[in-house]
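[job 4471] stage=fold_predict status=RUNNING
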Amino acid sequence: MPTMDRKVADIMCNYALGVYEKAMPSSLTWIEKLLAARKAGFDFLEMSIDESDEKLARLDMTHGDISDILAAMRCSEIPIRSICLSGHRKYPLGCPDKKKQTRSLEIMSKAIRLAGALGVRVIQIAGYDVYYEKSTDQTKSDFIKNLKLCAEMAAKEGVLLGFETMETDFMDNVEKAMHYVHQIDSPYLGVYPDSGNITNSALLYNTDINKDLLMGQGHLVAMHLKESLPEKYREIPFGTGHVDFNNIITTAWNLGIRRYVTEFWYKNNDNWQETLQYNNDFIRNCFQQLHLAAAV
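[job 4471] inference complete, writing structure tokens
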């Protein structure tokens, strides 16, 4: 592992902890979501643009819609600073259907432009060539071809793209993601690992999660902090799974990651605000443990 040239205790304030938009009821307005995130102690919100028509419609927001969101950020004093772009699940970059492939590039172009308009720094992109279709040599070839175009779009706008390490074997760890990062060779394409998914991947392949993260050194743009269990990738409450957050955060910190997003989901629970607060406290405590360890 790379060594730190100064104690973490001196710089622990220099990280940002965000929360995934889907941790809150979708019925809330932007100002309500932002104020809830701020009240729970988060530093920023990560917007979701998934495969639903409702979320994809965000890519065509008017100038007035964007102005309203910017006003909500100013009023709440908490920004939207990343986008989780999972809309490519329905319209993947390597899709055999050329019309869907064209739509995938349109989605990326519009997402990057939206990011620029909102001041978003990072877009997490899905780590697969296709999702509902069968992966082939052709889908992989088209994926790489279109990924290069996406990196060029991102470079123009100055927005970082980061591969999510997924729950499928195409790209379920950092090592696999870096295979494509190296092929594209752009400073605007990196890896945005998911702690729950890479924990399951390390268990599946009997590999060292720290060594896997080290494969991405210099290319890790942010990290999703998510709980998981063997063969279970979603909706596991923090503290009830098998993710070693203290270890992963320590390794991520040593590798230079300073932006983190807690990923969990609102499940029609009345106590969702308490869950926001609990999960913020849970992860902040992990950073505090790192702080204390560095101070010894």
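[job 4471] summary: The chain is about 45% helix and 15% strand.
[job 4471] exit 0
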